[in-house]
Amino acid sequence: MDKSSPKSLSTPINLDEHSVIIERVIAAASQEEDSYLEDPKVGLRPHSFESYLGQNQVKENLKIYVTSAQMRKSQLDHVILHGPPGLGKTTLARIIAHELKVNLHETRGPALDRPGDLAGILTHLAPGDVLFIDEIHRLSIKIEEMLYSAMDEFQLDIILGQGPAARAMRMPIAPFTLVGATTRLALLSKPLLDRFGIPERLDYYDHGSLMEILRTNARTLNIKISDQGLKSVAQRSRGTPRIANRLLKRVWDFAIGLGCGEVSDVLAHDVLLRQGIDGEGLDRTDRQILNAIRYQYHGGPVGIEAIAAALNEDRSTLEEVYEPYLVHMGYLSRGPRGRTLTLKGQTHLDAYGARPESQLTTP
Ligand code: ADP
What we know:
This protein is α/β, with parallel strands linked by helices. It has helices at residues 15-18, 34-37, 56-72, 89-100, 115-122, 141-153, 190-193, 207-220, 227-235, 241-257, 265-274, 284-296, 304-311, 315-328, 343-352, and strands at residues 79-82, 104-108, 130-134, 155-160, 167-172, 177-182, 198-201, 332-335, 338-341. The longest helix is centred in the N-terminal third of the chain and has 17 residues, at 56-72.
């Protein structure tokens, strides 16, 4: 640990009491406070394969595909990027377009409401352009079916008019590359999934890659932080660059507020603990999930619906945001009969988690 201790953070900390101050500091989905960090003027988002740190296998594969498309003088095959939020899918889609030196058109599954929305985008593509659809698992079936002929044959099938007078029309569009991103690959229909020639899975970043990202970004943001401080932040970032950036900014804001010239690991540790984030990056909701399984369901197995009811949380939030990291860390196992608390999960709770029955709604 660094020797310098923070000035006024010496009172004892009750993790689950303090964590209510800030809701989901470690949520991987983009939040209001990320808009500053993700602002192009701030310059944290990498623009090239070279500056995109970690995910080496995915990066290598994509580089080869991009080079091959350039040598063939043809559009890149369609790409599907999948993995938990905040790992760099949008960043990669932008890099692909940048490296191919083509235009990027960005949209989101839920924003493509009417066939006209998609037709409007597809008819404005130039040859080789990249169309990025984030949250592609949330496309309506009507829009998805329109994509089939667009992806296969670069043809747009549209229906003109309504009722008995309606007639089908086909029009050619420029050959393009669809890059889809999803946090829930299992929700994609097989016909859509089969149309992506390049599937790439992004996984949680290892400690070394996160350290590299944090060090680079601390330099860009002119943040003074010791090496141990960086380690402390990296360890609590759930293997996710978006969270790492957010925590880095948080500890620096506290350091400025307390008049510390540098973030030490003691300061980082205390600030994050006060926000309910424990040594492994778990927050109050994570611990409540583990505690619910342990005390209300005797360690499991228990279905996700029961856990959602016990915590008064949305099932899809549990599945998309919390569970993947708990499973990745080995605190929770997922089987055909439900979720089970592992020995590692129990040990973690013994170190950090208070018995939470009073805070839980009885299912
Ligand atoms: P996703 O689309 O998977 O939710 P993003 O691409 O929006 O994630 O990335 C979130 C933030 O994390 C970006 O603003 C970027 O600054 C940072 N980031 C993501 N991947 C990397 C990386 N490999 N190297 C450096 N920073 C990254």
